[in-house]
Amino acid sequence: MTVLIAGAGVAGLSLGLTLHQIGVPFRIYEATAVLRPMGVGINLQPNAVRELLDMGLEAELDRIGVRTRQLGFYSKLGKTIWEEPRGTWAGYTWPQYSVHRGALQMMLYEALIARAGADCVVTGARAAGLETGPEGAILILSDGRRIEGRLLIAADGIHSALRAQMYPDEGEPIWNGRVLWRATTRAPAYFGGGAMAMIGHDDLRLVSYPISDPDSDGMVEMNWIAEKRFPLDAAWKKEDWNRAADISDFLPDFADWRFDWIDVPALIQGAEVVYEYPMVDRDPLPSWTDGSVTLMGDAAHPTYPVGSNGASQAILDARIIGARLLEHGITPKALAAYEAEVRPVTTAVGQANRAGGGPDGVLQRVEDLCGGEFDDIDTVIPRAELAAHAARYKSIAGFSIEELNARPRTIAQGARIPA
């Protein structure tokens, strides 16, 4: 009755921890020979943090991340459009965390190995294909091995080989014309630390937030993402989290972005290495599930990095799969129930992110209305309208304050599959 998981990223490891918690046999098959911390900073919303805390990982999160206090939007001239508290400062029962993605992945991996044993993750095992039938599923690895299991969950990312088999005509991810440059820099904390900032507009913007608390000199490890729009016919190589960039490609665009609380050129120049990544997603699928096989995380619903929702949703996927297994047993019915619950939500989030309905949509609205120059934001967009926009996205993505605080646990404490 083993559940097979393809991929040991945030999605697959969260699912492994969940299955171990509820007593479901599983094994994860990971393409890389050795797991190494990859990527840069991400945010974990309170709905996902709640699940991680329910897995007993609060101390580990505090060790690797920062409890986020504030999110702010600022025009290209550094003027304040909208600021709001986050996490427990906003009234959530659970915090929001800013963390290094690689540190999160390694924390999940180490916790899983400590709980379930080293043999629960098989490395050097790249998923290449699948077979499904009435008795279960078979994961086919690139070296020809065939692994039989009761269920198969594809958590192998935006370039999922298993998704590609299910949808062979889909093609490559869709580029929206924007390129991201991502890095971390030791820099002065602003607004007391724990504050996220989004500056600019759709053609040129910067996102920054600390992934460490201020030291005695007031310095933090600042994660930042510079973003620029290019013509859609511009040539960009396939996305790769490990491709180093030349900052001269974009530093001049930010030369004047020096404000009294952040020096963007200094932030960019202070990074040891900068990675470039085209902003891509995929069209929503009509189905994720084929009998004993389903998709999760970026294999199911890759979206733009807008609203700090990608890793959070991967964790939620894992927990909802676990909850539906408790309800329906280790059966295809559980996978169908998971998809029915999650796919409409992730489709709505992906479409909102594409259409500028994410929380950062206010940046372009201000640019269009006044070019980022104003004395009082109320004369451009009323604050009540800004508050409503922020609340609307939280509701779409499933982390409105009142609803989340009132929601029962996804998995009841102590719940386990009957032996």
Automatic annotation (TrEMBL):
Q: Does the keyword Acyltransferase apply?
A: no
Which keywords annotate this record?
Monooxygenase, Oxidoreductase
Identify the Pfam families for this entry.
FAD_binding_3
Domain FAD-binding: from-to ranges: 2-350
Name the record gives this protein? Flavin-dependent oxidoreductase
Q: From which source organism is this entry? A: Ruegeria aquimaris
